Every structure is written in structure tokens, then in C-alpha cells.
Amino acid sequence: MAASPSSLYDTDTSYLDDPHAYESCMLDHWPRSKNVFVERTASNMRPGMHLDNLTVISLSELCGSMLVFYPDTAFTFALDLSAYEAKGVVAAHLICAEQGSEAPLTADNAGFLPFALSWLARERAAITVTITTQALFWVHVRRAKND
Q1: pLDDT beyond 80 at 34
Q2: Secondary structure letter of residue 21 according to DSSP
Q3: Helix H segments across the chain?
Q4: Whole-number Å distance between alpha carbons of 110 and 29
Q5: Up-side HSE of residue 48: CA atoms within 13 Å toward CB?
Q6: How many domains does the chain contain in total?
């Protein structure tokens, strides 16, 4: 399992400045898919794998299933949000999987992921996000190219 590409404690919670963010529901755990294909994909996910045309529900269910197969693992994805506003889908590239990583204090609940993706897609075409157990995720702060 590879190390995380950036500090896990350097998070972007700018979407929480929008008062509508707090209309999101809280989740006790990441949802799991009943779709056998999603479950099989989750069991085979490895860093470097790329999936296109995922709805936010499919992405959340994939994450939930991955965490069942690989508990106590933090998964970091590069998400392409360029088609999110027009089609409601993202492309996900699994950058790394890190065992035993703890979530930062600024990690957010999985129930906020749909709002975060929608809000962030208006501002940028790509983000890096990490998901982990206890229904948590965080968006990494964008780094300058010379960092």
C-alpha cells in the first residue's frame, strides 16, 4: 500500500461555507451496493485503477464496499469533476490505499459528499479526496505546482 500523496491534515472544507451544505444528511457508515458488479469491482480495486461515469451514489457505494473488503484503510482518489454538472458523473482514479491512517479532525461525514462534489464541481474540474471508515472523507487542499 502506497503512502498518501499529500498531508492528510491539510483539507479543503470550503464547501461548508455554503449554508445549504448543512441540509445534507449524516450517515453512520458508507452505503454498500447490492450490485454484484460494484461489489466485485470493490474487491479488486488497487492503486492505479480508473473508473469512468460514476454517479455520486455509485461512488459512495463503491467506497462502502471497498471499506468492507479492506477495513481500516484510507483510499485516496483523484476525481475528475468536469462532467459532474452536465451529466452528474465523475471519473475516479485510485491513487493510493493506506492501512491504519487516521482521519484529520476536519474530515467530513459521508452524507456531505454529494453536496461537496456538486459545490466543488462549479469551481474546479478535479479534486483529490480520501475516504475512510466511520463514514468519513476529506478533500485535499490544492497544491501549487511548485510545492
Answers
A1: yes
A2: G
A3: 36-44, 56-69, 84-87, 113-121
A4: 7
A5: 3
A6: 1
∠ CA 91-86-108, nearest 5°, is 55
Q: Is residue 52 classed as helix, strand or coil in its secondary structure?
A: strand
User: SS3 of 91, please?
Assistant: strand
Least confident span in 4-13, 74-83, 137-146: 4-13
pLDDT tens digits, residue range 117-139? Answer: 999 999 899 999 999 998 999 99
Q: Are 131 and 92 in contact (CB under 8 A)?
A: no
Is residue 9 situated within a structural domain? no
- The answer to whether residue 110 is domain-embedded is yes
Q: What is the pTM of this model?
A: 0.87
Residue 58 — φ and ψ, nearest 5°?
Answer: -60, -40
Beta bridge partners of 139: 129
Task: In whole angstroms, give the CA distance from residue 132 to residue 68.
Answer: 11
